[in-house]
Design brief:
Elements (H helix, E strand, L loop, with lengths): L1 H14 L5 H57 L8 E6 L5 H8 L12 H9 L4 E9 L3 E8 L4 E4 L13 E4 L5 E2 L13 E3 L15 H14 L9 E5 L5 E6 L4 E5 L3 H18 L2 E6 L8 E4 L2 H9 L16 H9 L19 H17 L1
Helix pairs in contact: 3-4
């Protein structure tokens, strides 16, 4: 029992706290301060490490950029081997080399890597004649420019009559997309292009896209006739768009056709029917109004043979005037005296003795001759 009590006393003495509450609180505060200082020092060291790393990376990047730029400048941009020596221009139209290079602001001797290809393409694309533009850099010293030009499909003017579009300042060439053009070099094939007259709803300027509904309908009509079987049978020469509700089309055989501004394909099919009828009956179409869908007014020209026959052989015979007889001097004297010589024949009536003009002259000569003998 004594041993057990002694051991219990020793265990209680070991478990007894050596400090009171105040001492323990103070000790806790000291531990917290120590830990906070250590944490602050650790955070400062970590931040400094990150900052030095960022500075090092920035320095390396800056040094690398400067080094690469300097190397590129020496190897490429300042290298005389990469100066432009050849500018090759390929075009399928009438654009001149000087005009293209001036618009592109491109010159020989520039560094080939300093040329902005997209910017040059956009500049050349602003030319009214340019439809598609491709710019290629060909190392070490060549730039290739390829241009597909717009093909004019007609002449267009605000005037209602024009004789020579080549010499008129009011006439413009127009492409399929409605872009107006003024060519410095006019080709002979442009003279045979259709003429669109009377575009007065908007001003016409080079490079402008026409927005007039009548003009757009005229361009669509040209496109449809070229892509159909009517191209050889109905070749448009003029399109008058001065009216706001229809188009007056004249073809090369001087046939006049009126088109409404809508349903062009249906109207062309109706025109096809009339042309087939003309081929079967050997007639020529003069006028046709395709605006109404039913009871279409149509006229045909007279055959050339009938016109020639009417000119040579008129239907009404000319009126022939009979000549008045001329009496001899002797007959006049007898009439004045009131008598006739015996055995002299009685005077004939005017209706029965009407000689031809040539006979009258012969009779006058004979009368003068007889009077001289007597």
């Amino acid at each position: 029992m004594k041993e057990m009590s002694s051991s219990l006393g020793r265990s209680q003495a070991r478990n007894r706290r050596l400090s009171n509450v105040r001492q323990r609180r103070q000790q806790h505060l000291l531990d917290v301060k120590v830990r906070s200082r250590r944490a602050t020092q650790h955070q400062v060291r970590s931040a400094m490490g990150v900052l030095w790393k960022m500075v090092l990376v920035a320095g390396l990047c800056t040094g690398g950029y400067v080094g690469v730029r300097e190397a590129a400048a020496r190897l490429f941009f300042a290298n005389p081997d990469y100066q432009i020596k050849t500018i090759e221009l390929q075009t399928d139209g009438t654009l001149q080399r000087e005009e293209v290079l001036k618009t592109a602001d491109l010159h020989e001797g520039e560094n080939i890597f300093s040329v902005n290809l997209a910017q040059i393409r956009d500049r050349v694309q602003q030319l009214p004649q340019a439809d598609e533009v491709e710019v290629v850099r060909k190392l070490p010293n060549e730039i290739n420019i390829r241009i597909v030009e717009r093909r004019p499909v007609a002449w267009i003017t605000s005037e209602t009559e024009i004789t020579d579009p080549f010499a008129s300042d009011a006439a413009f060439l127009v492409g399929r997309r409605g872009v107006l053009m003024k060519q410095k070099k006019l080709l002979p094939e442009y003279l045979g292009l259709p003429l669109i007259l009377g575009c007065k709803t908007e001003s016409l300027e080079q490079g402008k896209v026409i927005e007039s509904p009548e003009a757009q309908t005229a361009l669509e009509l040209l496109r449809l006739t070229e892509s159909s079987l009517l191209q050889t049978r109905f070749q448009i020469r003029e399109i008058d768009i001065s009216r706001s509700y229809y188009l007056l089309v004249t073809d090369k055989s001087h046939s006049r056709v009126m088109f409404a501004l809508n349903d062009l394909e249906d109207q062309l099919r109706r025109l096809q029917v009339f042309l087939d009828y003309c081929d079967k009956t050997k007639q020529e179409l003069e006028t046709v109004n395709l605006v109404p869908q039913r009871n279409i007014p149509v006229t045909f020209t007279s055959p050339a043979a009938s016109v020639i026959n009417d000119t040579i052989e008129p239907a009404v015979e000319p009126r022939i005037m009979k000549a008045i007889p001329v009496h001899t001097l002797e007959a006049r004297v007898r009439q004045d005296s009131g008598g006739h010589e015996p055995g002299a024949p009685a005077p004939k009536s005017r209706a029965a003795s009407a000689p031809a003009p040539k006979a009258i002259r012969n009779q006058q000569k004979k009368a003068h001759k007889n009077n001289g003998e007597q």
